[in-house]
Structure formats: structure tokens, C-alpha cells
Write a structure and sequence with these properties.
335 residues, alpha/beta, Rossmann fold, UDP-galactose 4-epimerase, domain 1, two-stranded parallel ribbon, 10 helices, binds NADP nicotinamide-adenine-dinucleotide phosphate
Length: 335
């Protein structure tokens, strides 16, 4: 297959490129040459800023285009105009952040979506990210119609993750000692190994149509299952101390960023998205222990983190803050 990846050198795109090359695709990567310019010498590299000039796309035809780097609708529109009918199929990497309400479990692809007060906004932030991806989806469907697939991943994890969220838990468990386990062991959790997501996207690239939630694992997982697997896989000597949500919130602990992956109950639907459509289209996930081991091994090799696409605080909690919280929690529960 002749495959064009708009991106391909940071995280999900990097796994897409690696696997596509491994299966024998003819791969073209379009990027600015900042994130991983030396990667994939076997691929054709088109160096361009998609916000400036897409003249590098003037020549060529591709069976499938996978767009990992569109955050505002203008970027989808300009690519569609540049490629026209020379793109056989277009796949947009969107996000489950497009959904309006995470209060209830079972969010399917037809659930209500976010709207932006100002649809011309171009600043990508926690507030605008989901609404802008909705507009990217609209642009993609308008341009490519049935030759288009929209993939809405949940939290993507694994080696090369620049966000450090899941990775924080792997390294925290490795460090050992008493670890704050947030919420309750039975709370649901979802995430997908970037390599599994990439494998599935390549499987459906070029022909799938419509919209797919894409997260994992393929059978339900709880926070207890996640953190216990992390403990037993990475450091059985570590000890989990389950600290309930209300107490953590009362101490000002910030879900998702300070204790990554963890979301408060009011957003529990974020970790219970309906992925039946993707499973029916062949999505499958490797064992969690493998993702944990590989992520920890990769994290140990990282010298300088790759910059994130969206400006946000570093994921994780400082050891001193965690120790202080544990001491206060112990004092209160002893009293
Ligand atoms: N991380 C998560 O948990 C999560 C969850 C849901 C959805 N998503 C979505 O998943 C996608 C994955 O992103 P990724 O970073 O992993 O993909 P990636 O393809 O590995 O990396 C992003 C690529 O885009 C290129 N790029 C960025 N800005 C560009 C520009 N203006 N012009 C040309 N190339 C540009 C970068 O290269 P250069 O820097 O060299 O230009 C890099 O190759 C995103 O769309 C994100 O919204 C992520």
C-alpha cells in the first residue's frame, strides 16, 4: 500500500510508520523535521510545515492517508485541497475528548459532541482541544465522504509517549515504597497501547468508513487491575495504599495530571467508552504487563522528553508531595 502519514515521527505516528514499513508499505512521511528527523531512512520524507505550504504534496498518489497532526479544521481543509482525488482514503486521528459529557458509561460514536463558543479559535488548549477535533472531523467528512474514517482514541500509552501519564505509573511503581492508589480498586479504566492502535489503524487504512472509538483493553479493566498488574510486574515489593477520591480532592490533588490516568467519578464515562465498533473491525490489545514492561524499559532510556503537541503541565506527583499526603492520610485514618 502507498501510505502517506501526516506526521509519523513522535508517538502514535512513529509506531504507524514503523509497522507500515515492516509490513512492506511504501511510506511517505510529511513533517517539519523537528521531532525525529533521523528516523525511518527507508521512508520518503516530505519536509514541510502543514500550516505554511503544502507544495510538497503536488506530486504523488496515495492509497491511504493517515493524519496524526491535525488539530484545527483549517489543517484538514488545506490537506484535502492539496491532495484532492490523489488520496484514495483519508483517516483522521481525532480523540474521545470530542464528547460533550463523560458522566455516564457506554459512550458510543453517536453520543453528543462538544461545540465551541468561537469556532474560529486556533489556540489548542484543554478547553478547545475536543471542540476543535469535532470541527476537524466535520471538515474530513465533507472533503472525503465515504473515503474517510475517523478514529477517536482514548488515552494512548506505551513507548515514546511524550505526555508521561501512563509512563509515570510505570516509573512510580518501579521506584517502590508506598504508592497512593487513587479512588477505588473497582473504578473502571481504559487506555490503549500505541502499538496496538497503530496495528489496527493500518489494518483498516484504505477502506474503513465512519467513526470508531478506539481504546482498550479489549475486556474491562479496573484501577485495581491496572495498579496491581503494574506492581506485580514491575516491583512486587511496592505497596498500594488506596486513598478515596473525596479525600484526595479535598487536598487539592489534581486528577488526570497530578495523579495521571485517574479521573473523578463525575467523569467516570471517560474510562468506559463503548469500543464495540472497533473490536468488530479487528482491534485487539496486547497483555497489560507487556505494555508496562516495555514502557518502563523505554522510559529508562529517555534523556530529554520530546515536546508535547499541547501545552500542559508535566504529568505526575513529586515524591515529597506524595509522602506528605500519605503521612496526613495515615494520621487521619489512625485517629
Ligand atoms: N496522546 C493521547 O493520549 C491521545 C489521545 C487521543 C488522541 N490523540 C491524538 O493522537 C494524535 C497523535 O499524535 P502523535 O504526536 O502521537 O503523532 P505523531 O505523528 O507521532 O507525531 C506528530 C507528528 O506531526 C508532525 N507535525 C506537527 N506539527 C506539524 C506541522 N505544523 N506541519 C507538519 N508536521 C507537523 C511532527 O513532526 P515535526 O515536529 O517534525 O513537524 C510529528 O511527526 C494527535 O492527533 C492527538 O490529538 C492522542
Amino acid at each position: 500500500m502507498k501510505l502517506l502519514i501526516l506526521g509519523g515521527t513522535r508517538f502514535l505516528g512513529r509506531h504507524l510508520a514503523e509497522q507500515a514499513l515492516a509490513r512492506g508499505d511504501e511510506v511517505t512521511l510529511l513533517h517539519r523535521g523537528r521531532s525525529g528527523a533521523a528516523l525511518f531512512p527507508q521512508a520518503r520524507h516530505l519536509i514541510a510545515d502543514r500550516d505554511a505550504d503544502l507544495g510538497v504534496l503536488d506530486d504523488g498518489r496515495w492509497d491511504a492517508v493517515i493524519d496524526t497532526s491535525a488539530y484545527v479544521p483549517r489543517q484538514v481543509k488545506s490537506v484535502a485541497a492539496a491532495l484532492g482525488a490523489r488520496a484514495g482514503h483519508y483517516m483522521l486521528v481525532s480523540t474521545i475528548s470530542v464528547y460533550r459529557d463523560f458522566g455516564a458509561p457506554g459512550i458510543a460514536e453517536d453520543a453528543p459532541l462538544q461545540t465551541l463558543a468561537d469556532p474560529t479559535v486556533e489556540t489548542v488548549s484543554g478547553e478547545t482541544y475536543g471542540g476543535l477535533k469535532v470541527l476537524c472531523e466535520v471538515e474530513a467528512e465533507a472533503a472525503f465522504g465515504p473515503r474517510c474514517a475517523i478514529v477517536r482514541p482514548g488515552l494512548i500509552v506505551g513507548p515514546h509517549d511524550p505526555t508521561g501519564r501512563f509512563t509515570w505509573w510505570a516509573t512510580r511503581l518501579q521506584r517502590g515504597g508506598t504508592v497512593i492508589a487513587p479512588g477505588a480498586p473497582a473504578d473502571a479504566v481504559q487506555f490503549i497501547d500505541a502499538r496496538d492502535l497503530a496495528a489496527w489503524m493500518l489494518r483498516i487504512a484504505g477502506h474503513a468508513s465512519g467513526t470508531f472509538n478506539a481504546t482498550g483493553p479489549d475486556s474491562p479493566l479496573t484501577m485495581g487491575g491496572f495498579l496491581e498488574t503494574a506492581r506485580s510486574t514491575l516491583n512486587p515489593a511496592a505497596r498500594l495504599e488506596w486513598v478515596p477520591e473525596p479525600w484526595l480532592l479535598a487536598q487539592g490533588v489534581v486528577p488526570w495530571s497530578e495523579l495521571p490516568v485517574w479521573v473523578p467519578r463525575e467523569s467516570a464515562g471517560l474510562h468506559q467508552v463503548d469500543i464495540r465498533r472497533a473490536l468488530a473491525a479487528g482491534l485487539s490489545c496486547r497483555p497489560l504487563a507487556q505494555t508496562l514492561t516495555d514502557t518502563a524499559a523505554w522510559a529508562a532510556t529517555v534523556e530529554a522528553p520530546v515536546p508535547q503537541a499541547i501545552d500542559r503541565p508535566a504529568a505526575g506527583m513529586a515524591p515529597e508531595r506524595e509522602a506528605d499526603l500519605l503521612a496526613r492520610w495515615a494520621a487521619e485514618t489512625r485517629a
